[in-house]
Each structure stands twice: as structure tokens, then as C-alpha cells.
Request: fold
Amino acid sequence: MNTFFDDDLLLYSPMAKEIYGEVKDLPVIDYHCHLDQNLIKADARFSDIGQLWLSADHYKWRAMRLCGVDEAYITGGADDHEKFLKYAGIMPDLAGNPLYYWTHLELKQIFGIGEPLCKESAERIWSAANEKLKDVSVSSLLRMYRVRYVATTDDPCDDLAAHGKYGDTLVAPTFRPDKLLALEEESIARLEKTVGYKTDTLAQFLDALEERLCYFVSHGCKISDHGFARFPDRYPSKEEAEKLFARRRELLPAEREALFGYLLVRAAALYKKHGILMQLHFSVTRNVNPPMYRACGPDAGFDVIGEAQSGRGLIQYLNGQGVLMTPCRFYFGCYIDTLCGRTLRNRMSGAAARHFFFLEKVRTVSACIGINLPLKKRPADGGEQPTPPWAALAQASRKCTFAQLAEDTPVPY
Reply:
């Protein structure tokens, strides 16, 4: 690297440069994000770089807290300029952290700024970036990064009015029923109001859940998402689950966990029926700082990876109620990829096993959401070599590798 963040950043070998050259112009398919679809629809603009970077990015908030920045300059009453200066001041301490790379890549790619961000350069960068920002909007950023698909995160009762096609970007909802499967009464009451009938029985609850899933599918939904701490120790029968649901307000913790397990299995069956990819983010502990949760609300940088999940819990879920008898497509969060990978490799054969390799996983996800990536085909006999599978995956997701169980059907080459 000859200059700060030049075009060869992180490309330390000829092979790295060759791989990047093959994938750098592929479109972005963002199948898991927390972007605000209303800002996309409105083609929102930003008053300054502080608002753009720091108004809702809990990754930056968390880094600022770890570096000792007072909360007033994170989620508090300080203005955007003051917050930006505090963020700039901690930047040298973040060297080696992904935020350091993301921040400087954005400065270069969006604002044309090649100077390191720090306390001394903060005012210059603030002025230069804000001048450039006058010509930047949400749609221009989506075009710049060739974003073809955005999957937002949505509650089953959301109206989805802002989802749709904007320019070359399809903004689709993701079905996220965590609060309903956790049997939160406020969420169940909202579900009843949305569908227009009571859910006093398990059958009524599942009917309402499927009704909302169908509504999501009609608005382009292809993906679901579930975040939870652990897989249950056991999965009740339908008859037991009906009895547990009938007295859901007075369940013991073990009973509530068992009923959650039944609902998670039934959700997989619904996703199979309607052609939905099922994301599972387990070993998650939410909102570990109660005072800050009350002050800032959820998704403010206070979630952590939970206890290690045993392989037995995953295996029991896959076995539960014949999940694999009606196979559903799964995606597992990156932090448990090794566990899922080892488990699934030992459960697949034939085409399903072939799908486990990275290139096939990319093709399966892209086919599921209706976008065909221009990846090279495998040569039958010599000829052009394929793009390295893991490199194609890295560009397609720009997030993490994953383990996916696909249906036992031919790969759509």
C-alpha cells in the first residue's frame, strides 16, 4: 500500500488482487439489514456527516462508549457537530477494528477524502464532507454501491407501505416474529387488532401468524428472521402445546421455552409452505444494560453474544416434529457458523450436500430472492475458471459466511 487507503487496501498478494478484480463490480444483495425503508422511499438527504453517521449507528455508539465518550455525545443532547468531533477523536484507537476501515472507505468513496480521521483533521473533514453531502441522497448512495436488493427487518403487524422498487433497488420486507413467538402480550394484542379477530387458541394464533406471513409474501417477502437465546431442551406435542398456549400468561420458564420450541417448528413449516428462507440468529442476549435500555430503547448497542449453544440443541430442533421431512431453507448467523456447518454436513447427501458449498449457497440465496448473480459457470472441460466461491459469497453478502440447508433440488446453473 503506497498511500493511505489506496486501491490495494487489504489486497496483500497477487491472488487477492485477482479475486477482488473478479467480484468488485457485482451488485450488493443485502439480505439482512436494519435500514429504514421510509428514508429510502423519501430519498432522504442528510444535513451533515454527523447525522449521516451517528444518528442511528449503534456500532459507532458502542465503540464510543468503550473509548470513554460520555453518553451526551452518543445518544444524548449534543449536536451533530459535537458528536462527530468526539467520534473523530477516538478513531486512532480503533485501528484494526472494522469501524476504522468502514469509516475511511466511506470518506474516500463517498466524499473523496483521503486523509485519516482524527482530532486534528476533524474540522477539515467535517467541512469538506458536508459540502459534498449537498449532492448526496439515499438513492445516490444506493446507486453508487450498486445495491440491487435490501431486506429490511419488520414486525409481522407492520403495514409495509414503504416497500417496493426504487430505481434499481428492490426493498423487500423480512418477517421477524420474535415478540410473538416470545408470547409478549402487547404484541399478541397488536396481532389481534391487525387481523381483526381474537387468538385465544393455538390454532387461531397460528392462523393469524400465517395470514400476516401471506400479507408479507404479497409485498415481496422472501426471508424470515428469528433471534433468540437458545434452542429449547424439548419440543411438546400439538396437544400439549395447545394446553400450554391456553394458559400462556401463567407458564413456568421451562413451559414457556417448550411452547416457544413448538412455535419455532411450526414457523419452519409455514416458511416451507410459502417458499420463505428462514434465518436463525441464536445465542443472542438482548439489552444487557437495563438503565440504558430504559434511556435509549432497543438496538442501541447493548446486545451481546450469549452462552455457547450445544450441537444437541440444534440437532433436536432439526429433528423436532419432522422438520427435515418437509425441508425448509435455513440461514444461520455467522457467529455460530462452525457449529451449524458441522451439524448440517453430517445430515446431508446428494444435491443437498452439494448445495452446502459456498458458490451453491450464493446461487440458492440469489434464486430465492429472484436475482441472478453474474457468476461464472463451472467449465465442463478446461476453459475459463470459475470465480472462487468464497470470494463471490463475500461480495454477495458483504457481511459474513453462512451455513445453509437447501432443498434437495438441482442447482439453477
Summary: The two ends are 38 Å apart (CA to CA). The CA atoms of residues 280 and 381 lie 39 Å apart. The first strand starts at residue 28 and ends at 30. Strands lie at 28-30, 147-151, 164-166, 169-172, 174-175, 223-228, 277-282, 284-285, 304-305, 330-332.
